[in-house]
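STRUCTURE:
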């Protein structure tokens, strides 16, 4: 996305608002920051940004009709304890920790998985302080092997995040990544949009704590990585 004047960007948001509200009256409930995220996700192209946002409204009505996803709707996903949420990084982004080896492919139902992704993204967004629109993620692949490989699930999770939560991801720090994962990464990588690809950072095992501490203060870093905070399962966050 090229550099654009802030005033000019808000002018584009106003034009986008007029367009989407004419198409879907429920768009009136969205604030300008939400519209701006969808606009930025499509490089300030009003037509493309509006299309993405209108698809989001339709998805939200169908996938989250009650306005939130309850734990009872993700009963197979929650017991796996594969996502935690605690603390904030140095710029106030909530810290999400995901454990790839805890994903149980044998129990995966695709619709439930998508609900689970929306559930933890809603939780992360709800924890963002005023003025902050992004979260940071530590993706831990310790113990990951081919038995945990679920390319369809990875792509589905990416699609939920990119299509319905654009510009929410600040950075993903991939840690403890085994070499065999790189074959899977080559398959998944083309499904990551160009604005998101640069946000995935592979961390050198030898510089793990050092790298994490660049973004996250020791007081906010999970204790399993040498920090001070205990992990908090997503449902308890």
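SEQUENCE:
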């Amino acid at each position: 996305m090229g550099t654009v004047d802030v005033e000019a960007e808000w002018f584009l948001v106003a034009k986008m608002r007029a367009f989407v509200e004419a198409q879907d009256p429920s768009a009136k409930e969205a604030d300008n920051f939400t519209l701006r995220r969808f606009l930025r996700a499509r490089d300030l192209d009003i037509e493309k940004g509006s299309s993405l946002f209108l698809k989001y409204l339709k998805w939200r009505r169908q996938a989250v009709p009650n306005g939130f996803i309850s734990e009872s709707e993700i009963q197979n996903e929650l017991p796996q304890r594969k996502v935690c949420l605690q603390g904030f990084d140095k710029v106030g982004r909530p810290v999400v920790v995901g454990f790839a080896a805890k994903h149980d492919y044998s129990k995966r139902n695709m619709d439930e998985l998508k609900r689970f992704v929306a559930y933890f993204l809603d939780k992360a967004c709800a924890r963002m302080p005023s003025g902050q629109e992004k979260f940071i993620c530590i993706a831990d692949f310790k113990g990951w092997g081919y038995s945990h490989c679920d390319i369809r699930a990875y792509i589905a999770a990416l699609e939920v995040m990119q299509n319905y939560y654009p510009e929410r991801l600040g950075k993903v720090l991939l840690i403890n990544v085994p070499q065999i994962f790189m074959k899977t990464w080559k398959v998944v990588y083309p499904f990551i949009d160009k604005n998101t690809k640069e946000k995935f950072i592979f961390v050198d095992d030898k510089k793990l704590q050092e790298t994490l501490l660049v973004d996250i203060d020791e007081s906010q870093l999970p204790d399993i990585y040498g920090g001070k905070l205990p992990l908090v399962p997503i449902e308890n966050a």
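REMARK: The mean pLDDT is 96.
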